[in-house]
Design brief:
- By secondary structure, the protein is α+β, with helices and mostly antiparallel strands.
- The protein has one helix and nine strands, in the order H-E-E-E-E-E-E-E-E-E.
- The strands form two sheets. Strands 1, 2, 3, 5, 6 and 8 form a six-stranded antiparallel beta sheet that branches. Strands 7-4-9 form a three-stranded antiparallel beta sheet, with no helix packed on it.
- Strand 5 (104-113) and strand 6 (116-118) form a beta hairpin.
- The longest helix has 26 residues, at 2-27.
- It is elongated, with a radius of gyration of 25 Å.
């Protein structure tokens, strides 16, 4: 009789261990890492009188053709980020302006990921960068309304990368 009780207890403990492992497996999550290499930066420009001022820095780090102002310096660059992941799940990328400067718009975003340029967001179901990682390059257009104030502007944006 005693042997039988011990066997039941042993079977019960094995079941608890198996259930515990299943629970641990469900609680494990993947992690994605984003490292900013450089934020997108725009040059100092001479504000147009009587019309909006437009400056474009493309994802390659060059000034775009629709720029309509005189550049006062060459201090500009595309945004560059490095992402890695410890899983293989597809990723989503979103890029938005935080609209923190009155009368100035940050728009026409471009994101370059794995040799493809995207211009509508969010981008869903992209191939995961894996542990080896991938670069994301970004470009955008700034349009300053003719009534915007002069001076230094600090445009803010949000780049998010999430695993599905």
């Amino acid at each position: 009789m005693i042997k039988q009780n011990l066997m039941i207890t042993s079977k019960l403990l094995k079941s608890i261990c198996i259930i515990g492992l299943v629970c641990i497996t469900k609680m494990v999550s993947a992690q994605i890492s984003i490292t900013e290499i450089q934020p997108i930066t725009f040059p100092t420009v001479l504000q147009n009188s009587g019309s909006s001022t437009t400056v474009v820095v493309n994802w390659k780090g060059a000034i775009g053709n629709s720029t309509n102002s005189i550049l006062l310096d060459n201090d500009y660059s595309q945004g560059r980020y490095y992402i890695t992941s410890d899983s293989t799940a597809p990723i989503d990328i979103n890029f938005i302006s935080l609209a923190n400067e009155p009368l100035i718009q940050l728009k026409n975003f471009r994101v370059r990921y794995k040799n493809v340029t995207y211009k509508t967001f969010p981008i869903l179901g992209l191939e995961n960068p894996g542990a080896a990682g991938e670069y994301i390059d970004i470009g955008a257009k700034v349009v300053a309304n003719k009534k915007s104030s002069q001076g230094a502007k600090f445009l803010q944006y949000s780049l998010s990368v999430e695993e599905q």
